[in-house]
Write a structure and sequence with these properties.
The protein is built from 7 helices and 10 strands. The protein is of the alpha/beta class and 214 residues long.
């Protein structure tokens, strides 16, 4: 795989050994979930332990529509990027703007929860440089194993080349090559597809994914 063209993030890291394993396999970004309803949620104490093995410049905070106060605290703690999932219909634009004001659009990765047949909410474009397209679930945000609409991703990333685009949603050894061919993605977010249980990553599955990519 050509790492100059392809970027890998692993999300839902809960253990130091998994973080180290990912970094040893050239994973660029380590995602730490702080959404209380997620089975991969970790506390700030655990985050600080993970920061002992995850270098500055590779730490991604993951949450769902957090209050600005929580975001301030995580910025001060030492996160480098902020991946925020949210329902665009239920989230006031003023809150999205406050996320961007707090961490800057460069560091903000917005992940709107939208059904695959729904148009992307382009009104959020001014707030972030990077957007994540995940598999849609009406009852959960991320980590569900549901695949995204790969062709929709390709259309968005081709039409809006001035933005960064991350493909997520149920990616694993059995489908990541198909996803690459259909989406033309260069940035992949791996989670449930390389797990043996929620928050427990499998090195063999990670390597299989990476080997499958061009």
């Amino acid at each position: 795989m050509n790492f100059f063209n392809t970027t890998i993030k692993v999300c839902g890291i809960t253990r130091e050994e998994d973080a180290t394993m990912c970094l040893n396999n050239d994973v660029r970004w380590i995602g730490m979930n702080m959404y209380e309803e997620s089975p991969r949620c970790i506390t700030m104490d655990k985050v600080k332990e993970l920061f002992n093995v995850v270098p500055i410049g590779q730490r991604v905070y993951v949450d769902v529509a957090p209050p600005v106060g929580k975001l301030h605290g995580c910025l001060e703690a030492g996160f480098d990027r902020f991946q925020i999932h949210f329902d665009p219909k239920a989230t006031p634009p003023s809150l999205i703007e406050s996320w961007a004001d707090t961490v800057t659009p460069k560091k903000l990765w917005l992940a709107p929860r939208i059904p695959s047949h729904t148009s992307f909410p382009m009104s959020i474009f001014p707030y972030a440089w990077t957007f994540l397209i995940d598999g849609h679930s009406s009852s959960a945000y991320g980590g569900t194993g549901t695949t995204a609409n790969w062709r929709h991703f390709r259309a968005l990333s081709t039409t809006h080349k001035d933005k960064g685009w991350i493909l997520a949603g149920g990616l694993g050894p059995d489908n990541i090559k198909e996803a690459q061919d259909a989406s033309s993605a260069h940035f992949y977010d791996l989670n449930s597809g390389i797990e043996t249980a929620p928050g427990i990553k499998d090195e063999a599955l990670l390597i299989q994914c990476m080997d499958a990519l061009d």
